[in-house]
Structures are given as structure tokens and as C-alpha cells.
Known about the structure:
49% helix
Amino acid sequence: MAARSDAPLLITADTRHEVERLARRIHEAGPRASGPFVPVRVRAWPTTARTIKKRWSAVFDAATGGSVFLTGVEDMSPAFQDVFLDLIDDLQRARTPSTAARVISGTTVSLLDRVTAGTFSERLFYRLNFIHLVVRDRAFRTANRSAVAPLLATARAQ
Length: 158
């Protein structure tokens, strides 16, 4: 389901490497596989509204027809969260479904806990969390790898 959808996806896993690997596999198995996969480390971005808007417009242009992968979303400052939420809505509304980029976000912490603590925007959490994929237990992942592989293969074939 996560691979076949264009809905925003939030991936929570134990490490950033796992999050990115999963994001790439989902992108490659989905309908936007022929488009670019553009990873962006959120912490490395400036926090002024003017600079954010200019850079994010360029990121979404580069990801046209593909996916933007936001890693480290838990590191967004409150100011960045507010500006980013408005910007992402504007950028997605300004594009047709075929030229819009799918937003895939990744984190290693519970963003819901951050929302509850008041350190992460509830609006942004629900905007990024349309589909939430949580992969936390290594033993579970190893035992169920054979069950997950066919699902990715089926999504890729469709």
C-alpha cells in the first residue's frame, strides 16, 4: 500500500540508514519510480523564511514526478516547521498530480511523542503522517523479511 500510494508517508525506524533504505525501496516500487528520488537532510537547511522558500522550490522542481525524501524531520525547529508546512502546501497545490512530488519523511524518534511534548507541530505531523510505517524491532524485520519482499515485488510489478 505504501509503495502504490502518492500520499505523504512517514517512516519511523531505528536508524537513519534504515529509514532512507526503506524510503528508496518504496519509491522504486511505486508509480513514481521513473521520477527522481531527492533526499534532503532537514537539519542542513537554513531557517529564514525567504531562504527556505527559495531552496524548497528548487528541491520540488528537481523532484518533479518523483519523490522528495526528508530525513531527520525531528530536527526541524518550530520556526522551520511553520514555514515548511505553509510552503509544502503551496508547492503541492501549484502542481498537477503528475508534476507534483511525493513527500516521504523519515525519523528515528516518535513524532507523536514530540507533538505531545509541544516540540513538534501537530499540523505538520498530520500533514506528513498520512501513511505511517513503523519499523522498530530488528528480530521482527529479520523474521518477516521473506514476507515483505513479495509485497514490494508485487507493488513494483503493478
